[in-house]
Amino acid sequence: MARICVIGTRGIPSFVGGIETICENLYPLLVESNPDLEVVVLSRLSHNNVNRYVYKGVNVIVLAAPKISGLETFVHTFFALIYARLFVRPKLVHLHGIGPGFFTPLSRLLGFKTVVTHHAADYKRPKWRWHGKLVLKLGELHAVLFANKVICVSNSVFEELNHRYSFFRRKRLVIRNAGSLILKKTRKSNVNVLSELNLTTKSYILAVGRLDKTKGFDDLIRAFSTAPSSDKKLVIVGSNYIEDSYVASLRKLASENVVFAGTRTGEELASLYQNAALLVNPSYMEGYCLVLAEALSAGTPIIASDIAAHREFELAEQSYFPRGDIAALSRKLKVSDFTIYKSEHAESLQKQNTWSLNAKKHQSLFTTLLKKSP
């Protein structure tokens, strides 16, 4: 039996974050379709206070990491690789993100075939100081130099990486994330989330994501406040693992019409997408935008900042506004009918971009690399 070890996720299931969503959906499908494949996820946070469990055929082992801001991921990756060598003994290690990618050389020295998934150029995020940015840039370089394969989650990440590093291009490939929601008929839990938040169908504008400065939620709230609507609320779904000054400043803007709904997953999240009048994603940077993928699969009208990762979804032209332009976003919000921001073309493309297809592409890559293993 071939064993794969996954490092770089906080945990599965129901954890906030793009990497966490991907891991929750990808690996169970891989295990289900490959009886001879074993996947072991070495996560950082426990699920329901359990440190060893099986989630849909995927073995999860929680290795606690020190709560040191900015260092938690790096320290955990180092210990996880040592743990993998001593106890898991996989043939292949899958590292998620350029932070864990810093340890690609160590992974190779320990004898593992190593795949790094590049989710985004995280060093562009304002939260990192110069030394954090330097380590992340080195993580990206180490992945490019030492990984057996580098997976880019979108064409925009692939093109940016090729622009920065003209060498070893043959080791890189694009496997776009999926992000399609599992939509089900209305259940009691779906009704409950709307009533809990005092919402009705099409009575609110939705934004989803981690409460991080790069997501631009402060821009959205300002634009919403200058384009008041008597019958619409702004609902922001998401949280952050660290309640920093930015999160505190956002929460101060909460009001009767600006609702922070916290973390929502599964059917609750799907229901919020399905019943929203509009989804707005004002993000300044994305590797691959799972939020847009989820909104498209729910058939929700979309407004999004004009960045490369959003352009990949081929939304209707009127759905885009210049990044950071609050006045332009406000004008978009003032229209009387949000259905002008629906795009049947983009929704059709998203229907083809399934988790099943994503898993098949990973399976093909892993199978090829494992056949080459000694």
3D architecture notes:
The strands form two sheets. Strands 3-4-2-1-5-6-7-8 form an eight-stranded mixed beta sheet, sandwiched between helices. The protein has two domains: 2-178 and 354-371, Rossmann fold (3-Layer(aba) Sandwich), CATH 3.40.50; 188-352, Rossmann fold (3-Layer(aba) Sandwich). The two termini are 14 Å apart. The radius of gyration is 21 Å and the shape is globular. The model is unreliable at 185-189 (pLDDT under 50). Helix 7 (188-196) crosses helix 10. Helices cover 41% and strands 17% of the residues. The protein has 374 residues and is α/β, with parallel strands linked by helices.
What order do the SSEs take from the amino end to the carboxyl end, as H and E?
EHEEEHEHHEHEHEHEHEHEHEHEHEHHH
Report the span from N to C terminus.
14 Å
Write out the CATH superfamily name of the largest domain.
Glycogen Phosphorylase B
How many domains? The number is 2
| Poorly predicted runs of 5 or more residues | 185-189
Top-tier CATH class of the largest domain: Alpha Beta
Q: What general outline do the C-alpha atoms trace? A: globular
Question: Top keywords for this entry?
Answer:
single chain; 374 residues; alpha/beta; Rossmann fold; 2 domains; 8-stranded mixed beta sheet; 6-stranded parallel beta sheet; 15 helices; 14 strands; globular
Blueprint (SSEs and pairs):
Blueprint: E1 2-7, H1 18-33, E2 37-43, E3 52-55, E4 58-62, H2 72-88, E5 92-96, H3 98-101, H4 104-109, E6 113-118, H5 130-146, E7 149-152, H6 155-164, E8 172-174, H7 188-196, E9 204-208, H8 217-226, E10 233-237, H9 245-251, E11 258-262, H10 266-275, E12 278-281, H11 290-298, E13 302-305, H12 308-311, E14 320-321, H13 326-333, H14 344-352, H15 355-371
Parallel strand pairs: 1-2, 1-5, 2-4, 5-6, 6-7, 7-8, 9-10, 9-12, 10-11, 12-13, 13-14
Antiparallel strand pairs: 3-4
